[in-house]
């Protein structure tokens, strides 16, 4: 059935492509954060274990919201590790870094998500897609705040 939501098909597909990258970045960062939650050690264990849990718990529903927005635009959302690996700009962690390296790696991941969100925002704005623009703005605010907090921990 054809979509008639006031956004041209080409614009919807362009927005959905960008949101697919945002989804892949978010999911990869979610997995990395969960990994670090499980494997952090050292004097800041309790603080970081708790903080990482808060971060991945926030990203879990965000992944769903992004995927559902892609579907609302009439495009199938990526949903496999294979697809996410192709689409994501967030670097996966090799091995188990120390706590400070985990913080720096997560900071880099959040900043990557921020850059992806900024790159795709103009397509939503140009198409008058307020729902996608709002979702992107919400993700920007959250990831910028988290990046600030992680950066502050590094001094």
TrEMBL record:
InterPro entries: DPS_DNA-bd, DPS_DNA-bd_CS, Ferritin-like, Ferritin-like_SF, Ferritin_DPS_dom. Residues 17-154 form the Ferritin/DPS domain. Pfam families: Ferritin. One of its GO terms (molecular function) is ferric iron binding. It comes from the Bacteria. Belongs to the Dps family. PANTHER family: DNA PROTECTION DURING STARVATION PROTEIN, GENERAL STRESS PROTEIN 20U. This is DNA starvation/stationary phase protection protein. It comes from Acanthopleuribacter pedis.
């Amino acid at each position: 059935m054809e979509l008639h939501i006031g956004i041209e098909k080409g614009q919807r597909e362009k927005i959905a492509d960008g949101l697919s990258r945002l989804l892949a970045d978010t999911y990869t960062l979610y997995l990395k954060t969960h990994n670090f939650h499980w494997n952090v050690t050292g004097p800041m264990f309790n603080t970081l274990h708790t903080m990482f849990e808060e971060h991945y718990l926030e990203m879990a529903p965000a992944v769903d919201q992004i995927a559902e927005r892609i579907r609302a635009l009439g495009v199938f959302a990526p949903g496999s590790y294979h697809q996410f690996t192709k689409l994501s700009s967030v670097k996966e962690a090799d091995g188990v870094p120390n706590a400070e390296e985990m913080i720096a790696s997560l900071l880099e991941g959040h900043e990557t998500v921020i850059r992806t969100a900024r790159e795709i925002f103009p397509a939503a704005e140009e198409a008058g897609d307020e729902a996608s623009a709002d979702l992107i703005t919400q993700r920007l605010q959250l990831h910028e705040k988290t990046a600030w907090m992680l950066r502050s921990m590094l001094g």
